[in-house]
Design goal:
Elements (H helix, E strand, L loop, with lengths): L3 E7 H4 L3 H8 L4 H9 L3 H20 L9 E3 L5 E3 L6 E7 L2 E7 L15 H7 L2 H8 L4 H22 L20
Antiparallel strand pairs: 1-5, 2-3, 4-5
Helix pairs in contact: 3-4
């Protein structure tokens, strides 16, 4: 098996209906149930539960009992396993998709639904080089896709570092020729 496994699935393929959600919700570990309960909207709760189902499947494929591994959160709120188990994970969900990564080293993943992006978001999240890269793209749709690619790289990187959204995303570039400067 690879050192790092990443899967992205549709929520409905993991939790097809309300009855399945109710069954799965009852089996969520406490840390995931708290995450799930923190969401206001049912669709967000569903994604939060579905990403746990995906992680559990990935761990089971590695021969690991997900329910037996205690999960803690670092000072930035990133969940993780006790270092003694030698595994790391990252979770993400957006729109109809959930994503999980499992690795023997720190890992980060992100999935986003592409949508319209305002100028203030570009300014707050991208370096000057990244903003210039996006500005050269004429189509608003293609510019939004480019931003989403940059954003998911940045969020994945910050998750791997363990800082998540508390990172200053303007302090590093993820353009292919400037990654992680």
């Amino acid at each position: 098996m690879n050192a790092t496994d990443v899967r992205c699935e549709r929520v409905a393929s993991l939790i097809p209906d309300d009855a399945a959600f109710a069954r799965i919700y009852g089996t969520l570990p406490d840390w995931r149930r708290r995450k799930c309960d923190a969401f206001r909207f049912a669709a967000d709760k569903l994604r939060s539960a579905a990403v746990w189902v995906l992680l559990r499947e990935m761990l089971t494929a590695r021969g690991v009992d997900a329910d037996a591994l205690p999960v803690t959160e670092n000072e930035f709120g990133k969940p993780g396993f006790d270092s003694s188990c030698g595994l790391h994970f990252s979770l993400s969900h957006s729109g109809e998709r959930v994503m999980a990564a499992v690795s023997d080293r720190p890992v980060g993943c992100d999935v986003e639904k592409v949508g319209r992006v305002g100028a203030e978001v570009f300014e707050a999240c991208l370096t000057a080089e990244e903003r210039a890269f996006c500005a050269q793209i004429q189509s608003e749709t293609e510019r939004a896709k480019a931003f989403c690619r940059l954003w998911t790289r940045k969020e994945s990187y910050s998750k791997a570092l363990g800082t998540g959204l508390s990172a200053d995303f303007t302090s590093f570039s993820v353009l292919p020729d400037t990654c992680f400067r």
